[in-house]
């Protein structure tokens, strides 16, 4: 029997806000208090900064079956929390909920569409509190569409390797309080070669190694600042044709895909987030 995780993605924004001593608007989902309490205790107080790393489409079953690949994430975090993705389990829906604290009905994205969000987001809360924020994402990332038009800095790079280098540059600059990073080398590889393909496994390893490089630089530049660090996927991915019909992603040609998401299958829905403080 399949067992789905209980914590919903909409609590992510509240965890980040609470760990940084901030509050989301009234009516938005609160964080998970025990999570933020542990993080603040381990940090020695509320966090001044945050680096939020989103490796797209890494499902919980990949952690269960290929645990060694994630050693770089374990080494640099101290707490794991199982989450369940949004339905449908597409990137725009999931990330909108993660960064608002709202269900799809509240933020308005229900499928693979990428309108600019007009509701308040975690980014808006951070900016209102005087935090300097950057979004660093791969070309045509959902983040660059649904969180567009805000008073923050946007950086776009072609792949995860370039993202890593740019992230190190931004951290070295000491200019930003919050950096949100979105890579999808694994998502692309899983779509075209299969979730457990050699190409997919290599992409997971590349993204995990990049996460560790980022953590090591933050640690070397601590300078009395407390930093929240997360590794937080949006959904998983299943092999095409494994169970039932595949979803339709608006504007996306899925005819050559060997992996897909957007369903209620456990491979798409169960994910795990890792949190740490430096």
Explain the overall architecture.
By secondary structure, the protein is of the alpha/beta class. It has one domain: 3-Layer(aba) Sandwich (Alkaline Phosphatase, subunit A). Helices cover 38% and strands 17% of the residues. It has twelve helices and nine strands. The protein has helices at residues 11-19, 33-43, 60-65, 71-75, 91-98, 104-107, 122-128, 142-146, 160-173, 185-193, 198-220, 266-269, and strands at 49-55, 79-84, 133-138, 153-157, 178-183, 227-231, 238-239, 259-260, 270-277. It has a seven-stranded mixed β-sheet, sandwiched between helices. Strands 7-8 form a two-stranded antiparallel ribbon. Helix 8 links the parallel strand 3 and strand 4. Helix 1 (11-19) runs parallel beside helix 2 (33-43), helix 9 (160-173) runs parallel beside helix 11 and helix 10 runs antiparallel to helix 11 (198-220). The radius of gyration is 17 Å and the shape is globular.
In percent, how helical is the residue content? 25-40%
Output the CATH topology. Answer: Alkaline Phosphatase, subunit A
CATH superfamily: Alkaline Phosphatase, subunit A
Poorly predicted segments: none
Compute the average pLDDT.
94
Rounded Rg: 17 Å
The domain tally reads 1
Along the chain, the helix and strand elements come as HHEHHEHHHEHEHEHHEEEHE
Q: What CATH architecture label applies? A: 3-Layer(aba) Sandwich
Number of strands: 9
Number of helical runs? 12
- Distance between the ends: 39 Å
Gross morphology is globular
> How much of the polypeptide forms β-strand, as a percent range?
15-25%
Strand order of the largest sheet: 2-9-6-1-5-3-4
Structural class: alpha/beta
Give the biggest beta sheet.
Answer: 7 strands, mixed
CATH class: Alpha Beta
């Amino acid at each position: 029997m399949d067992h789905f995780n209980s914590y919903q993605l909409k609590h992510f924004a509240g965890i980040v806000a609470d760990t940084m001593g901030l509050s989301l608007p009234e009516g938005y989902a609160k964080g998970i208090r025990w999570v933020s309490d542990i993080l603040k205790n381990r940090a020695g107080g509320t966090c001044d900064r945050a680096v939020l790393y989103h490796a797209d489409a890494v499902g919980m079953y990949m952690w269960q079956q290929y645990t060694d690949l994630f050693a770089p994430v374990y080494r640099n975090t101290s707490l794991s929390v199982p989450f369940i993705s949004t339905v449908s389990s597409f990137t725009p829906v999931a990330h909108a909920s993660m960064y608002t604290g709202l269900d799809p009905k509240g933020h308005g994205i229900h499928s693979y569409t990428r309108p600019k969000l007009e509701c308040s987001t975690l980014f808006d809360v951070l900016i209102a509190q005087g935090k300097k924020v950057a979004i660093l994402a791969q070309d045509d990332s959902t983040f660059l569409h649904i969180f567009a038009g805000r008073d923050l800095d946007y950086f776009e790079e072609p792949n995860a390797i370039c993202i890593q280098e740019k992230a190190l540059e931004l951290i070295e600059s000491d200019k930003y309080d919050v950096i949100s990073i979105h890579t999808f080398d694994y998502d692309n590889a899983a779509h075209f070669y299969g979730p457990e393909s050699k190409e997919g496994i290599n992409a997971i390893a590349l993204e995990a190694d990049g996460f560790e490089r980022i953590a090591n630089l933050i640690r070397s530049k601590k300078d009395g600042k407390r930093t929240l660090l997360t590794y937080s996927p949006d959904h998983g991915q299943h092999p095409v044709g494994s169970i039932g019909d595949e979803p339709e992603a608006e504007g996306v040609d899925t005819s050559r895909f060997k992996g897909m998401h957007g369903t209620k299958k456990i491979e798409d829905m169960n994910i795990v987030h890792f949190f740490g403080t430096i």
